[in-house]
Amino acid sequence: MLFEFDADQRLWQDTVREVVAKECAPTFVRNVVDAGADPGQPWLRYVELGWTELTDAESAVELAIVLEELGRATDPTPYLATMTQFAPLAPAFVDPERSGTAVHEGIAAHRVGGDWVLDGSAKYVLDGDRAERLAVVTGAGVFVVPADRVDAVRSPTFDPTLHLAEVRLNGVVVEDGARSDVDPARARDIALTGVAMTTVGACQRILDLAIEHIRGREQFGQPIGSFQAVQHKAVDMHVAIERARALAYFAALAISADDPRRRVAASMAKAAAGECQSLVFRNGLQLFGAMGFTWENDLQFALKRAKAGELMLGGAAEHRALIAAARDAHEI
After folding, report:
1. CB neighbours (10 Å) of residue 220?
2. 104 and 24 in a common domain
3. Which residues does 184 contact at the CB level (< 8 Å), separation at least 6?
4. Which of 18, 21, 259, 318 could share a disulfide with 254, CB 3.0–4.6 Å?
5. Residue 188 in contact with residue 201, Cβ under 8 Å?
């Protein structure tokens, strides 16, 4: 496995970064939160550019590049849920122009004649209140359900740009043709890698803002960035981000190559991203001082997105335990 981007991937990264800077600028994100601007507006641009077609395993690294940049920008669209949760669970039902998400647990399915009936509820479903279709994981398989056949209520969350919802299915009847024949475990590896990559992007944004601040903020007649204690905090943030980024791209490579290490790699990426955000959150806030606590400071959006990434699909402690279990079972 190569750990350096080739020329095409570097060009792709530059292109994605340029588009995201235009379509999902900090002023747009703030308008979504403060003025109620349409959070799905950039989605149409992503569709137009073909970013919603990166569903093949071979495109895992290119998708990871997009996710990192969107995490860095605190993207408010349903791209993450659509590409890393719905698409891997329902590849035969993918429509590049339609959003989707996944319900990973809490739903049971039973046969009634030639159809299936789904019952149950799930909390904190990413974009469960606005996705057009849901891939519902049950013991009988994965079923694709249109959004207008479920009850979804958005849940309050500390990240105002993030949509999480409680989803209920009460006797929803779906035909057998709506069942997706996939491996939910492999799909979960993609979902974990996607959240890890987004978290890395948010952490990079925190570091970028912190570096900009300590270069311009003066104390005792000189920039605070010249103080050794401040430099150490910035360096610790950089090292943590590089470690988490390397593991996230390794997981993407493992998925792309269908490497049997992908399950452990995905947990390693998620654990590293969680540990990274903990350090970067703390140091980033401290480097900003009291300014970091103000609503007017854009730092808040990256901080909240990074923290949300740790909480989704299991935290660092849970995934470290999974890695330890894999080691004990001689899987790594």
Report:
1. 7
2. no
3. 89, 104, 137, 142
4. 259
5. no
User: In this predicted model, what pLDDT tens digit does every residue of 53-64 receive, in sequence order?
Assistant: 999 999 999 999
**Whether the Cβ atoms of residue 270 and residue 312 lie closer than 8 Å to each other:** no
pTM reported for the whole predicted model: 0.95
H-helix segments, 123-227: 184-216
pLDDT tens column, 104-124: 999 999 999 889 999 999 999
> Domain limits at 208?
184-328
- Give the separation between CA 49 and CA 55, rounded to whole angstroms: 14
25: Cα separation from own chain's centroid:
18
Count of C-beta atoms within a 10 Å radius of residue 227:
14
CA 275 to chain centre: 15
Query: Helices (H) and strands (E) in the chain — how many of each?
Result: 11, 10
**Residue matched to tokens 């959150």:** 281
If we measure between CA atoms, which residue out of 276, 277, 186 comes closest to residue 240? 276
Asked if 175 and 309 sit in the same domain, the reply is: no
Do residue 172 and residue 195 come from a single domain? Answer: no
Pick from 161, 118, 168, 166: nearest CA to 30: 161
Same domain as 43, residue 154: no
173-to-47, 67, 146, 253, 257 alpha-carbon distances in Å? 31, 34, 11, 38, 37
Among 93, 120, 135, the domain boundary falls at 93
Strand arrangement of the beta sheet that strand 100-103 belongs to: 100-103, 133-138, 141-146, 179-180
Same domain, residue pair 89 and 109:
no
